[in-house]
Amino acid sequence: MKLRKAWAVCEWLSPKGESRMGAARTVRGQAPLYRRGNRAKRRLGAKLGGEVSLVLLFIIPTFLHAQKNDTLTPLRDFINISSGYKQMPLYLELEMKNSTNFITGEDDTSDVNGKFYLGNENSYVRFGEFEQVVNDSLALLVSDELQQMILYTDAAPVVKKMKSMMGITFPDSSIRKLAGKYISSVKELSKQSAMIELHTRAVLYGTTLPKETIELQYDVLKKMPQQVTTLTRSLLRLDSMQYSQLQNEHDVTDSSLQLLTIEGSYFLIKKQFTMYLYKKIEPASATVKVPVLITDRIMKNEEGEYVPVKKYESYRLTQNE
């Protein structure tokens, strides 16, 4: 609205706008202003017009710049809320669910609970049946089902992976790069919670649907995430028999399964969902201690080599430099 008003003033001060003003005066039986011969008035009008135009020259770019910056606010809030809590020490409980509208592999669906104890010197994660135990120099991955351990002598990559398991992450968190990739918006859900929505500018081929959608629901007062849901869309090619079968098996009004033809080929729009449900986020304290240390799983033998402790001696230990 402000931009329209500024544009209207520009039009009014332009020669076209001036002739409009003259025409309006002519209708009322008066001579147009620029024909009255009053040079002083014309000079005053030109001066005022020049000054107003000069003011607008500074105001409009400033307004446009402010308007552009405003569109970055949801992205900035998204990054701060989704990553701000990942500071050590920290205790976190979450549930991660994978689901889809069309199963093509075992990884499409899962439901895993995770507990994260992140200390300044030692950290421990229990994610499903896997354990990750970390100190300042070593990291140990343990699988109870496989009865295997992998020891990493460089803990940094494991810590990075550990944090990525705590929710959505962006390889490049530059605001402007994200703004070039996503369209963002904010939706108020209640007095206590709101949702930031991100939609990729890139659309799925043959459709107007964004390739990816991310929804972050958060506590407005605490600025803490409550739930993050990602939706990734992809095209799954079908043959004519599969296409006909799916058409017959599913109601055409069923929006969960979308079939389409593109240039004579048959496709299904596969939707892959990943949801992070945050159950507890709190700083580590004396009441929340790291429950497992690396020395609880492995030790050095007489030769100086790492081996499983007696309780885990049936586990196979391999070392990854």
Helices and strands in order:
Blueprint: H1 2-13, H2 15-27, H3 39-70, H4 73-84, E1 90-100, E2 110-118, E3 123-127, E4 130-134, E5 139-143, E6 148-152, H5 156-164, H6 175-181, E7 182-188, E8 193-200, E9 212-219, E10 224-238, H7 240-249, E11 258-262, E12 265-282, E13 298-300, E14 306-308, E15 316-320
Parallel strand pairs: 6-15
Antiparallel strand pairs: 1-2, 1-12, 2-3, 3-4, 4-5, 5-6, 7-8, 8-9, 9-10, 10-12, 11-12, 13-14
Helix pairs in contact: 1-2, 1-3
- CATH fold label of the domain at 87-282: outer membrane lipoprotein receptor (LolB), chain A
Q: How large is the count of helical segments?
A: 7
Sheet with the most strands, sense and barrel status: 13 strands, mixed
As a percent range, the share of strand residues is 25-35%
Question: How many distinct beta strands?
Answer: 15
Main CATH class of the domain at 87-282: Mainly Beta
Structural class: alpha+beta
| Poorly predicted runs of 5 or more residues | 1-70
Shape: globular
Radius of gyration: 31 Å
Q: Helical proportion?
A: 25-40%
In the CATH hierarchy, the architecture of the domain at 87-282 is Clam
Distance N to C terminus: 62 Å
Averaged pLDDT: 78
SSE run: HHHHEEEEEEHHEEEEHEEEEE
List keywords for this structure.
alpha+beta, outer membrane lipoprotein receptor (LolB), chain A, 13-stranded mixed β-sheet, two-stranded antiparallel ribbon, 15 strands, 30% helix
